[in-house]
Amino acid sequence: MSAILLIPIYEPTENTVFFINQLAQSVKVPIIIVDDGSEKTYQKLFQRMEHPNITKISYFDNKGKGYALKFGFSVILDSYPDITGVVTADSDGQHEIEGIQKMLVAVDRLAGQEFLLGVRDFSYENTPFRSYFGNRMTSGFYYLSSGIHLQDTQTGLRGFSIFSLSELLKIEGNRFEYEINQLLVLPKIGYRITTIPIKTIYSDGNKGSHFRIFQDSYLVYRPFIRFFFSSISSSLVDIGLF
After folding, report:
1. How many whole angstroms separate alpha carbon 175 and alpha carbon 110?
2. Does pTM surpass 0.70?
């Protein structure tokens, strides 16, 4: 079996249903949809996401994107042991299907400790201000914390080999901070980041995002602060030993 596509969804819209069904018709791999504790009123929309390639899994109560991803990873390890890798994608239609297909091909070729990021073009004139400003901030903090230049730290389009899922399940975080923690933890234990340019579609200035400005910004930036001070402490200990 080749790769599998994992998509966490919270409170879908009509656009979500259209995107998922269009995607299922275009890609030739299994698609796992994780319902991240959406209210019962959204179940009719989930029911309309129908295709032989689609498997839907769920749990009660909204627990966050990070939890949904890890829940999906654990199901994949248990039920799809023969796959080569996993591509994670967002459900808001920002990722072009062509870009997702490109990631599915690339994840089959992953070698050793390596993972993929679908990197977007964040030129000012092509990006809603909130997305532009937020990505510039996180990219800067990420460089200060890790020493790695990365144009897009917030992309949800990522690719992992089947062998990396056990490491992904160990990474802390249940909400948006989980994907930041991936970028901090995996390189630290020897994983190499490979970037793949992708196009992004912003509908209505990215209003469909479930990102909460204050609560989730705190969660996203907290790992950088912890990682930064942890690195400083380690350096001071090393200096003290000499």
Report:
1. 27
2. yes
